[in-house]
DNA sequence: TTGTACGCGTTATCAT
DNA sequence: ATGATAACGCGTACAA
């Protein structure tokens, strides 16, 4: 089956014996067309089922009304929710969201950015991959003059806006909560400090211990990737070190899940023997046999705000001002079963 | 900051004092250009950092090398994995994947399809929403001559290819497994039969019971949505009916998770008192305190095959043949803790 | 082998 | 208020 041939403004102009220019003006609701012809054009456009050719418009105007979002993985609830927030905010304005995955690989990330630029998107939202150290590919986007917004995982690049959450605060509150519950020796399985979010969570953890006069034990601190398997391995290693601890603050719900599994395998009861707090409030955490205490991040809101920043930015571009806006959201601790020392 | 101005084939042509046409031919490796000028063009193109304008090309050729994927939700591991499979297969061929969510809403689905058509994609992959009954919007895509491929959740529409898994077989095997483990009274919390997958899973469940001479009890069969909350509610209802059962086959891992939670709340032990089998092999199922027996679906493979079907299809279009290919994959049962009557 | 000219569908500019 | 024309960047049929 061959493509159905599209109707253009020329078809309308021929039918009405007017010029294509007039049709264009009428369709764009210009005030330089008589009301009569305007109505006529609109009517026949509808009758012929006219659809504006977005490609031609984009070629002409330079705007595609597409924006790109680059995330490590789309199947993480957190990222999916941020995307949802962006969509909610931008769809009413006529924008379409193109979603790309970096799979935590810088090369992939660079490639996706290149493809997006080539697709002539109007803006890019990005949460950088774990392996992103060199940021040349990101600066290139900025230098092209494409509005660029970091969310959650950012790099410090001048001229780029960002929307993040206060990871420090989230970690501080989570750790303090464990201390207040009576746990004394708190391990921290975090993520790679190359990502600011994990560094900040580590800092929050350390600050909370300091503020409560608890000594930091480097043997109880690890950096692993955000997977269930990594959580299992981390606890195995902790066990091998034979350094007792009675609580675990993880920078990832997945790691916490794996960690709890391994702790139970060693005969520990949660939360009686060992308290556990995760990070992200992934949906499954709420429905575990022992619901997991975790730090929630309002990802939908993050997406909405990122989108708003984008919209501001493109209006600023017109004014030839360059802004660099930094929004930081507050996290919230969800206190559930795994962190109350006396059991629940 | 204003957009950096792009270099075009005209810039190259001016620099080399040749026509733009020759540049175009050289860049497209036509054999109607001398080797010398070809090399020259390629060199200066690289020097000027020339990037082909995808928009202009698309306007001219009618092909964008973009394909659209419409799924209910991107944060379901199953759909995310299918998308991964499509990407893997299509990216090497130069295609870019645009991901859309219907949020299980037919109107949204129709809107997304319309937007995709307007973006001039080269093909569409779709897993229909739960609320999709009227398929006019899908037939419209087909009638536009855009290659269209269903995956997992399909509708019977002539001229549309599909890649699905054998849900009947998966359910039959899961139910048979429970029977062989010694469970006698097996409840089934399925999904809305408007979706073929859930109807087929129901059919497989019924067939397995029949083949083992177990009577069907309609009171033990429900249709709910695929969420943890729905699983909780469903088991609550089952309890209220006061009809004993010793196993639960759910058409969704999320429902199984909620169901188990509620069963435990009523004092039942899993799997000793009640055996449970889910469907989809979501990642979390493996790491629960009691790992969940579930039916796995090879979603990445499904995506790869769907992409291959698409590639075949576009080559067939050239030959003006219309094909309708139906691929059915086999599911696999992952036997874990929640279905062994004696405990593990 | 290379150049000229046109068209893809739209909007903006300049006339009328 | 409307029309003619150029331009966005590219590929290609036709001419040279």
UniProtKB/TrEMBL annotation, chains A, B:
One of its GO terms (molecular function) is transcription cis-regulatory region binding. Pfam families: LacI, Peripla_BP_1. It comes from the Bacteria. Keywords: DNA-binding, Transcription, Transcription regulation. The keyword DNA-binding applies. Residues 7-61 form the HTH lacI-type domain. CDD domains: HTH_LacI, PBP1_LacI_sugar_binding-like. SMART domains: HTH_LACI (SM00354). The keyword DNA-binding applies. This is Transcriptional regulator. It comes from Leeuwenhoekiella blandensis (strain CECT 7118 / CCUG 51940 / KCTC 22103 / MED217).
């Amino acid at each position: 089956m061959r493509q159905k041939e599209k109707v253009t403004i020329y078809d309308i102009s021929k039918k009405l014996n007017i010029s294509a220019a007039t049709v264009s003006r009428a369709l764009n609701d210009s005030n330089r067309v008589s009301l009569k012809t305007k109505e006529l054009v609109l009517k026949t456009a509808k009758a012929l089922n006219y659809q504006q050719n977005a490609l031609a418009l984009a070629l002409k105007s330079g705007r595609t009304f597409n924006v790109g979002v680059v995330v490590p993985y789309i199947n993480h609830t957190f990222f999916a929710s941020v995307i949802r927030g962006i969509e909610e905010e931008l769809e009413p304005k006529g924008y379409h969201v193109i979603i790309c995955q970096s799979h935590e690989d810088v090369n992939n990330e660079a490639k996706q950015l290149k493809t997006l630029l080539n697709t002539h998107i109007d803006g890019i939202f990005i949460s950088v991959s774990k392996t992103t150290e060199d940021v040349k590919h990101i600066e290139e986007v900025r230098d092209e003059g494409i509005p660029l917004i970091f969310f959650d995982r950012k790099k410090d690049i001048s001229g780029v806006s960002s929307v993040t959450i206060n990871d420090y605060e989230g970690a501080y509150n989570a750790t303090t909560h464990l201390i207040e519950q009576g746990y004394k020796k708190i391990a921290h399985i975090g993520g790679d400090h190359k990502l600011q979010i994990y560094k900040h969570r580590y800092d929050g953890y350390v600050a909370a211990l300091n503020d409560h006069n608890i000594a930091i034990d480097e043997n109880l601190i690890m950096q692993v990737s955000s997977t269930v398997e990594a959580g299992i391995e981390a606890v195995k290693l902790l066990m091998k070190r034979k350094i007792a601890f009675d609580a675990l603050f993880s920078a990832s719900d997945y790691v916490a899940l794996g960690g709890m599994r391994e702790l139970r395998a060693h005969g520990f009861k949660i939360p009686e023997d060992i308290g556990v707090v995760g990070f992200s409030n992934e949906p499954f955490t709420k429905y575990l046999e022992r619901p997991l205490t975790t730090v929630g991040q309002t990802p939908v809101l993050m997406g909405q705000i990122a989108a708003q920043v984008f919209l501001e930015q493109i209006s600023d571009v017109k004014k030839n001002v360059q802004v660099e806006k930094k929004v930081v959201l507050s996290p919230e601790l969800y206190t559930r079963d795994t962190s109350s020392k006396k059991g629940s």
